[in-house]
Design a protein that fits this description.
8 strands
């Protein structure tokens, strides 16, 4: 495809002209979560000014931790629009929730962004005793760019980064509207700020990093909106197909009539389709 075609396929804001309303709603609901729920705000997990997270904790210790990574095409947004996810899990006592910030482009390149997410998860694993959640039940989720980063976390060799960390630090993943192959992104307007070359795109593409067998990896759910652009439907189809072909456990969900922005609410609202699926993963322990 030529650049003009790819630009159109990956331009979600153009595809959904009403997206400012969605982002405004996320901001309002996230502020409400921080005001109403038990929250440890702006915990620093690394040296970069954006390496901060908000941690929402359950009243009863020992519960699982659900980590949520915001979207924004690796160059926008923040945890300030992501904390609404806590409504779907903390309120019902299902899980503690961590909303994670990370450095963004053009200041940060893709390698740095991925390294930051891995640093956040190691911090959360090490600091579990201080905040009362079970470090042996850490789950990772994310939307759009956050979906990509969810898979990069799941495919991490944790002991290679920290000899104390277990290989199965992440017990399950839930990617919403994820990007699993960055090679098309490199050819779009998005790369004007991200600056990826072929090598960077390849080594940060989950589709290209899958091992010969995924049967030993944690369970995965991939969700996409039925009203999303063909590029996102294709990204999910290709990745789920490759994961299954290698023997891994994966559930694919298409949320009818949901576009790239309003699908996020399906994780935030108790009883919505994605919240139910994530809650089921938490309850069965994988």
């Amino acid at each position: 495809m030529d650049r003009a075609t790819l630009d159109k396929l990956y331009n979600n804001r153009e595809a959904v002209p009403t997206h400012p309303r969605d982002i405004a709603r996320w901001t309002t609901e996230s502020a409400r979560a921080r005001a109403e729920l038990p929250c440890h705000a702006d915990l620093a997990y690394g040296p970069h000014p954006r390496e901060l997270l908000d941690l929402f904790t359950l009243a009863t210790p020992g519960g699982p931790l659900l980590v949520f990574i915001h979207g924004g095409y690796w160059q926008a947004m923040s945890k300030g629009e992501a904390s609404l996810i806590a409504h779907g899990f903390v309120c019902d006592g299902l899980a503690n929730v961590a909303a994670v910030n990370y450095p963004i482009g053009p200041e940060a390149g893709m390698d740095q962004i991925v390294a930051s997410i891995r640093r956040a998860l190691l911090w959360l694993w090490h600091h579990a005793p201080a905040y009362g959640y079970d470090r042996n039940r850490i789950y990772v989720s994310g939307h759009s760019a956050g979906g990509h980063l969810t898979l990069m976390a799941m495919l991490t060799d944790w002991p290679a980064l920290d000899t104390e960390a277990p290989a199965d630090l992440v017990k399950g993943g839930f990617s919403i509207s994820g990007v699993y192959d960055l090679r098309p992104i490199r050819l779009t307007y998005l790369n004007d700020r991200l600056g990826m070359d072929d090598a960077v795109a390849a080594r940060n593409s989950p589709l290209l990093l899958l091992p010969a067998s995924t049967s030993g990896l944690p369970p995965l759910t991939c969700a996409v909106g039925g009203a999303e652009t063909p590029a996102f439907l294709q990204q999910q189809h290709d990745f789920v197909t490759a994961w299954k072909a290698r023997g891994g456990q994966v559930t694919a969900i298409t949320a009818p009539d949901k576009h790239h922005f309003d699908i996020v609410d399906q994780m935030a609202q108790p009883g919505a389709v994605l919240q139910i699926a994530m809650a089921a993963m938490l309850r069965r322990g994988g």
